[in-house]
Amino acid sequence: MTNDVIIQFKNVTKQYDNDPPVLGDVSFEIERGKFYTLLGPSGCGKTTILRLIAGFTEPSIGEIYFNNKNINHVPANKRQVNTVFQDYALFPHLNVFENVAFGLRIKKLKNAEITAKVKEALSFVNLAGYENREIREMSGGQKQRVAIARAIVNEPEVILLDEPLSALDLKLRTEMQYELRELQRRLGITFIFVTHDQEEALAMSDEIFVINEGKIQQSGTPTDIYDEPINRFVADFIGESNIVKGKMMNDYLVEFVGREFECVDKGFNENETVEIVIRPEDLEITALDRGKLQVKVDSQLFRGVHYEICCYDKDGNEWLVHSTKKAAVDTEIGLYFDPEAIHVMRLGETEEEFDRRLETYVDGASHHGK
Ligand SMILES: Nc1ncnc2c1ncn2[C@@H]1O[C@H](COP(=O)(O)OP(=O)(O)O)[C@@H](O)[C@H]1O
Ligand SMILES: [Mg+2]
Fold first, then answer.
1. Which of 66, 67, 146, 342 would bridge with 263, disulfide CB 3.0–4.6 Å?
2. pLDDT surpasses 90 at 262
3. For residue 124, with 0-12 CB atoms within 10 Å meaning exposed, 13-18 middle and 19 or more buried, which class applies?
C-alpha cells in the first residue's frame, strides 16, 4: 500500500440476516485528495459502502483500513469522516450558523474559534452573510450548501456525499456539480460522491467505481470507463451503446451480424462468444454499398448538436447513430466504423477477472482496445 492510499477495503462482504450479501467480496483503494464517485442503480450497495466508511455499520467479513489502520471497530464519531446526506439532515430549529457550528460545539471549541471556523466554512460555500437565517428560509440549493459547510467545518480527511444533488432541479444541479468539484479542488479533501446518474459521474470524477449487485464492475477514470467498458452492464449503464452478440474468430478478427470485421482486440479463445459494443458517435452514415453494415432507418430525432438516428439491420439488431448528417426514415443506408470503434467484451466478465486475464498475456499488452 502506498502512502497515498487513505481508505482500503479488503474483501469486504456485508450481509443482513440470511439475505444474499448486499456487498460481495469488495476490494478497492481510495487515494488521498481525489474526487471519487460510486455509480450504480438503486439498491446496488452505494449507501452501504458509505455507511461502512463512516462507521454506521460494520463489515460481516473483511477489513477496512483508514491511513493504514484497521478501523472495523472504530466508532463513527472517532473517524476523520463527515457525511452529507441526501435529505441534508439539517436541524430545522437551529439557524444557519448553529447548524454549521453544531459539531464544533460538541467538541467544546471556544466561541471565538467557532465563529471564525463557521464564517470560513460558509464563505467557502458562498453563504457569507446568511449566518442568522432560519433553515426554512433557505432554498433547496442553499440548504445543500449549509449541509456541505457543516461537513467541511470539521476539517475531515474524507467527505462522503450520498446523492446530494438528486433533490435539485436540473439547472441548479448542474451549477452545484461545478461548485462541488471546485470546492473539492480548493480544499484538497478526498470526496466520495454517490450518484445513480452517469452523466454526473462522468462530469465530476477523477475516478469512478461502477457498481452493480454489490460488486464493483469496473473502476477507472471517466474516459477509461466510457471508452473501454469491461462488460455489458458497464457499456449499457455508461452512455448510449450498441451491443450485439459476436464471435471472436482469431486475434484481431471478430464476427457479428453475419460478417467478419477487423478489430484491435486479441487474447480470446478461438470461436469464443463475445459481446460487441460500438458507441453511437463512432458510427458514420455512408452510401449503402460503402458501409460495413447495411441498415434501415427507423426513426430520427434532432438533439441540438446531432441527429439521433435509430436503425435496424437484417437480423433485427437496433443501431443507434449520432450524426450531424440527416437520414431519411425508411431508407437503407450504410454504416461505417473504424476497427478501433469495435470494443470486444467477454461475457459477464468482472474487472478482477479482466485484470487476471491481462496478466496471463505473455507480452503484457492490453487486448482491450487501444
Ligand atoms: N439495514 C438493512 N437491512 C437489510 N437490508 C438492507 C439494509 N440496508 C440496506 N439493505 C439492502 O441492501 C441493498 C443495498 O442498499 P443500499 O446500499 O442502500 O443501495 P443504494 O444506496 O445503492 O441504493 C438493498 O437491497 C437494501 O434493501
Ligand atoms: Mg443509496
1. 342
2. yes
3. middle
